[in-house]
## 1
Amino acid sequence: MSELCGWVGTVLRVDLTRGTISKEPLNEQWAREYIGGRGVAARYFYDEVDPQVEALSPDNKLIFATGPLTGTNASCGARYMVVTKGPLTGAITTSNSGGKWAPELKFAGYDMIILEGESPRPVYLWIFDDAVELRPAEHLWGSGVFETEDALKRETGLPDCAVAAIGPAGENQVLFAAIVNEKYRAAGRSGVGAVMGAKKLKAIAVRGSGAVRVADPAAMMRAQWNMKKELSDAPLTSDGLPTYGTLALMNVINEHGALPVNNFQASQFDGAENISGEHLNETRLAANKACFACTIACGRVSRISDEGVGRYAVTTSARNWKHATEGPEYENAWSLGADCGIDDFDAILKSNLLCNDLGLDPITLGATIAAAMELFENGKLDESQTGMELRFGNGDALVALTEMTAYRRGFGNEIAEGSKRMTAKFGDPDLFMGVKGQEFPAYDPRAIQGMGLGYATSNRGACHLRAYTVSAEVVGNPDQMDPRATEGKAELAIAFQNTSTAVDATGLCLFLTFGTTLEGIRPILTAATGIELDERSMLQVGERIWNLERLWNNRAGLTAADDSLPKRMLREPIVAGPAKGEVNRLPEMLPEYYELRGWSPDGEPSADKLAELGID
Amino acid sequence: MVALSGALEIEPEKCTGCKQCELACSWIQTGTFQPSKSVIRVHVFDEQASFAPYACFQCDEAWCMKACPVHAIDVDESTGAKIVIDEVCVGCKLCVIACPFGTIFFDKSSDTATKCDLCAGDPACARACPTGAISVAEVDPGAWLVDFGKHVDSAYRRATEGDEISNSPEDAR
């Protein structure tokens, strides 16, 4: 066995076409160069998958990867990353989730699962320590995520196993289907669930009884003690996130005039207060919930009001929705709420719950419905096509379309393609609000310049988790920068991208960075792995992964032309609010970004840069 | 009068379900992170939005002790914790069967029973808990085991203050 610490040293390889399972040692050199999670998985993916592959074909691979800190006591070390070619974007995608699924995989003895091929019939993967089996899942095909998890816990006889599953959306290859674990935690974006559905893999259920060893146990306990203290001293991780969850942002971003409304037609929402964290706490919050080993506990458990229970009747397997459900996160309250002009919290909660049960990415779902609403109001769509009065503010339409989309019923079949394809089909592609086929999250890049650059250059399409410059430009963490200025934003975006990527590689949650820095994380990583990395070399790992992903994307046919923003962001100024008159000035930032990255003006990593990073 | 003993005082309403306690407990025992070896467990009641850490209550009338045929379970004088003496334990699992709360475990790798020993008075789980849901308290079991505890307590009193010590579960009703 391996001498590795932190990592458990074994990769599980599953050939779904042949139904065979093999175990191989983790590539130690890659573990050192790319740390883990997003990094090591990207390295395997780069090595093994032709960038020209069709995302939903058997030749695409689906990788579930943990990091060396996953399953240790490091605060927030609960994450896994799903790496594959995203059907929504055609780019490499890296979709992250928490909960306890990833630690269970480590305790079972595996750092990573590589899934290849396509099963001839529905199956699920069962892992209990050394025992790994592909089992028939015909009886689960068609079930929601909740029912699947409950059924697997019953039939495997291990109620404590963790289940990551797809719902009907993944089975029906909705292009933004998610993979959901523990019912409410999701690897949400870019359609990783559709890839799993195409492979006819319904779920991965895992239970582990083994250990994650660390290089220096005493140092690990000390480092984690310090980390816990650091997080409990920092305002965002001790107060902001635990008190209001990510929804703390709703009122903040609205006040900054950066909250996109009605498919980015406006940037402040009259109903923001009704869908804010403050309002959730007063009316619907049941409890906080933490992911494994998390000392922040930002998760919300909320209840739909009695009135809302009666109002939104849809057929679903989400049996427990009358009681407690999780969420919504800020992103989802925005996409299903403000972006669709909806401030009815019950409608948002219900739609969000359905997204979890049916296995949908709520960001792309809400944004695509918002684009359809604009098409409808502009007369490009009518009721004979949509089957409903699809206007902004219509909560009933939102809930109905959520379910129709997962099953590709009626107009839901159009929503299921995402807004880039949907707006193009109905004659107004400029109404697609996103990058590389993936919809924007909840920050108007005209009001926060750095976010525009971050969206445009993100390797997996528009995303808030790749370069969260909001932190500096709005929240003032670590230093306050002017959100309207473009100076220094290229450097800022790169710093955030490299940092976030490095954190993603460790198996830690990105939210740690609201309370600490890479320098704060470093002692934990060193104690766990025994590998001394200074802050600079951690940043370089982030940079290495970023360049590798970029290289893969370039080979998949993505170019500098894909590092762009929709016309509305570049040429239509914000109409009202604090950011009135602003557009995103991407052309002022992008050339500098390429230059600082060491890329050609066409956005290709230079030979020198690749050599410096040790990428061949 | 029943002697007070040390025990973990757990406030479920403060628990977020993060399982730092399980990680810390397994670290104390093994030097690794292995929740399956933890003797404190967090039960998650999803639909009730409730999380319940549970560990040995350090019962006054400890049925594990009574059930043990080789007297491998003893009281740590300094804390009042019931502890398993590994060298004496023969791995028969009678204590696991006897415990009404499911808080004594059998460890396959060492072939012995394992249970919470209060870490000699400074429990790692309490230190690791980010929300203060776990602390050590001097407790009268009857005060917080609610009805069941009262039964146990009164049976104990009857037994100790009377003439005979009863092992019959009937007496606990």
Note: The two ends of chain A are 28 Å apart (CA to CA).
## 2
Amino acid sequence: MSVPRLEAFLARIYVDAEARERFLSNPNAEASGAGLSTDEIEALKQIDHVGLELLADSLARKRQATDKRRSLKRSSEIDH
Amino acid sequence: MAVEVNHTKVPVDMFGLGWRPQLALGILSNLERIDVVEVIADEFFNARRSERRALRTLAAQVPVTLHGVSLGLASSVKVDKSRLERTARLCEEVRPLSWSEHLAFVRGGGVEIGHLAAPPRCDETIEGTLNNLSLARTIVGVLPQLENVATLIDPPLSRYDEASWISEIISGSKSDLLLDLHNLHANAVNFGFDPVEFISQIPSGRVRAIHLAGGRLVGRGNVHRILDDHLHDVPDPVYALLEEVGARTDPGLTVILERDGHFPSIESLLGQLDLAREALGRGRARRAITSRREVAA
């Protein structure tokens, strides 16, 4: 198992809605394109779909909140 | 006859809050009820000189712990050395009681996830985490306490359950554990395991710190999971787990209540700390009774 490749793949489908959509509609193509092995792809087909959607939503909200906080901080630094 | 004084410091449990700018006034006005404050280390990596001075002033008033959120230690990929160096500089400056990080991966293949993600629980991530901890110790000088993370997804390609995976890392390193009880509660509900059994499976003697927080239910269709959002009060099952920890560990725990938004009054947060003191106290009382019975037997 190539875990660095797997971690990279997971990171992408967790944050990139288009990559996630491509993976869910055609897991073989998306995962083999990322260099994952047949065994890894078969295991990924069993991915917890609800968990993936909920996680992706949650991460998107966290990123929005972080961006907003950083933007407010930058504004406050300019004011000072 | 001279009285012999035992100068050995007796470990005591400490209770405190996560430092957030919105809570600053409330915390500083109530230091007699707050033993310790946990500061997010990453917030100060690029801080202005005045902000770092303020942090040193805070640390002079109340014991501080540093908490990292972006190292991504639990990964098969090597941790970024420059982030560790920044952690080391901050530790040097603030002299915290301890520093901690999550058992999470936060990036992969150049993609920043932007939050903590549970890695596949397998031999490769155990080995990667141990290597990263070794580097952390070399650069920072002290190992971090390691925190279990909440997850909405069962990490794909996992070969260990969470308790076994954490136990392997704790046993293979000299790091202690920061046990987040809301994360444990959330994962137990989300994936259907017994959180008390989890506590009995991990090396409880290595639990040195506790996080408490709240969350909410999220769902799709008829599937619901707990999201650890730090926006709600600590729910009762988390206090019950704190009692269980108290029944299994020795004094000397640092218990931190985390709140990241929808801030209630400081009195409400201090009230939750009081409930935590009571819960841990109940556990300690159970432990004392068990010990007395064992001695009597």
Note: The first strand of chain B starts at residue 14 and ends at 18.
